[in-house]
Amino acid sequence: MGYLDMQQCLGDLERRGQLVRIRQELDARLEIGAVQRRVFAAGGPALLFENVRGCRFPMVGNVFGTRERLRFIFRDTLRTIERLFALKVDPLDALRRPWRYAGVPLALARAVPRTVRSGPALAVRARISDLPMLVSWPRDGGAYATLPQVYSESPARPGYAGSNLGMYRVQLSGNAYEPDREVGLHYQIHRGLGHHHAEALARGQRLPVSVFVGGPPAMTLAAVMPLPDGMPEVFFAGVLGGRRLPMLRRPGALPVPAHADFCIQGHIVPGTGKPEGPFGDHLGYYSLTHDFPVLEVDAVFHRPDAVWPFTTVGRPPQEDTMFGAFIHELTAELVPTVFSGVHEVHAVDAAGVHPLLLAVGSERYVPYAERRTPQELLTNGMSLLGSTQTSLSKYVLIAAREDDARLSAHDVPGFFRHMLERVDLGRDLHFITRTTMDTLDYSGISLNQGSKLLWASCGPARRTLATEVPAGLALPEGFGDPRLAAPGILVLRGPAHDRGRDDHDPRLEALARALEGLPGLEGLPLVVCADDAALAARNWDNLLWVTFTRSDPATDIYGAGAFTRCKHWGCAGPLVIDARLKTYHAPPLEPDPEVERRVDALGAPGGPLAGII
After folding, report:
1. How far, in Å, are 174, 220, 269 from residue 296 at the CA level?
2. What is the pTM of this model?
3. Helices in 141-286 by DSSP H: which ranges?
4. I need a labelling partner for 231 at 20 to 30 A (CA). Which of 87, 137, 240, 409 fits?
């Protein structure tokens, strides 16, 4: 049976040598977050910070920092979850092999929470200012809860069946928030809390919201799980945790997990909103200050032995990468049941997840045709952009399994090689402009607005990709340092960007014209223009991060021999992506050098992290 609370989980991890206690006093401002990131990068253990400067609560980080640790934490129920998902893929398998699913009815019976009369979660009252004030990056606007479970219920359908549990960042201090009475709620578009908030606004009502921190690890994973509409996260948490979730109720308040470490209860009042941010986020940049809803705090509770779980985010990979990889393991076989004709998807973590989605689909519409062309692939791609979290994707690259049965979206170099060998740049690029995009992506024309590109290629290979830079490559003034990042991909250094939003750069247009017809570029269908060509071309992680987090398809794509015909854009090639930092982009995250030196000292001989970092 799964863990009842975080304390049970940490005890098990410590007995296995997977938790280290740090007794030295450290500051939640910058120091503790920097330690967590460094230990995660080293594949190290969970970290229990027992002496947090100016705070009476211990903090624990990196609990979910490796796939092996995630599998261990949920070891008792993983097989059941896998069998439940297998039934979704093939319901008749239960008739063919009923013995495999003997435990499924009991698991489903654990989905609905149960009400209990007592539990430690509401034992002690506190204030927001008593909580650990984690500041992860130097320019963060205040302290944040970074592993919160934000719970709300539909005003139209109150109760667990109409509930949402999401991980939306919660700003605890800073900006214009009234100390101890207000916290900021940053939720992105396409999120369940937003649906509940819209219902409350339509009714002119306050929306009750609770923020849980800690408690059963199953609640934390459920809060980030991309579940289909109609499947409450608290139900999934019960199945994953191997027990019906015990919940406490206070009169007039939302239910509270009986074994949560902390609970903040409050309301979003209609018409309220205050600046939230900046915050160092998972794309590797600061998300800037914008108005978001304010949670007016009614009460703060904690259990007597409370510990504050946290993580820090930044340029991938980080601890949240492990959540994504683990969720993919659980749900990979479900993809064809959600997206007809799609066999595999990969939201690329190195590119910040939402900026780049690779997919393998089917091309069966005209099997008798002499040459395969993208048709069903376009249906597949539009389906991916039309529902679930894949709808937030900015670049969707989709290939046909019929061209190579061994092709995998998780083999990034192989996938790009396959696409670049086959792409017809005059046919295969399909833009969606002036549309919604990820709230955290600042490459578009405004907050939440930008463009998307669906790139679908299939058929036989059209070209052999170049494996070296053409000799004597002549480039316009201001461009230089050509480097081969991968077969078929050329990276150039460009001049600093100096344009505004929603505006093409004449210098990139001139570059595209200059590349038209140049000898030696036949095998280089993709050119990336970056501020630092050496950095971008150094490895695949750098190339993906620079290219896809720093470009908006409609604004930043150019092409040699470009044309628009009946509103379809294409080019003769090569395709040019402007991946420079723009004047309107959010700044990239950079650590504090002095803090990093102090972390180095913790890893020196005799230090608490010696041999770990």
Report:
1. 15, 23, 7
2. 0.93
3. 192-203, 217-224, 233-241
4. 409
pLDDT in tens, 243-297: 999 999 888 899 999 999 999 999 998 887 899 999 999 999 999 999 999 999 9
Q: Is 338 exposed, middle or buried (0-12, 13-18, 19+ CB in 10 A)?
A: middle
Helix (H/G/I), strand (E/B), else coil: 40 = helix
pLDDT digits 0-9 by tens, 523-568 = 999 999 999 999 999 999 999 999 999 999 999 999 999 999 999 9
Q: Is 553 left (phi over 0), alpha (psi -120 to 50) or beta?
A: alpha
Beta bridge partners of 486: 489
- What are 338's two structure tokens? 């959600």
Q: Tell me the C-alpha distance between 613 and 602, whole Å.
A: 9
Number of residues written out for the chain: 613
Taking CA atoms, 255 is separated from 113, 159, 195, 451, 550, in Å, by 10, 9, 19, 40, 42
Instruction: List the structure tokens of 7.
Output: 């304390």
CA distance 223 to 485: 37
Question: CA nearest 180: which of 126, 260, 261?
Answer: 126
List 151's β-bridge partners, or say none.
165, 210
CA distance 217 to 214: 7
In the chain, the domains with their CATH numbers are 6-73+110-310 (2.30.110.10), 319-457 (3.40.1670.10), 480-578 (no CATH)
> What confidence score (pLDDT) does residue 89 get?
47
Positive or negative torsion for Cα 109, 112, 113, 115: negative
Residue-wise pLDDT tens digits, 369-401: 888 999 999 999 999 998 888 999 999 999 999
Q: How many CB atoms lie within 10 A of CB 67?
A: 13
Please state the three-class secondary structure of 125-143 as a single string.
EECHHHCCCCECCCCCCCC
How confident is residue 92, by pLDDT bands cut at 50, 70 and 90? very low
pLDDT of res. 178? 97
Beta-carbon contacts of residue 203 (< 8 Å; ≥ 6 apart): 155
Helix (H, G, I), strand (E, B) or coil at 287: strand
Burial letters for 31-51: b for 16+ Cβ neighbours within 10 Å, e otherwise?
bbbbbbbbbbeeebbbbbbee
Residue type, 140: D
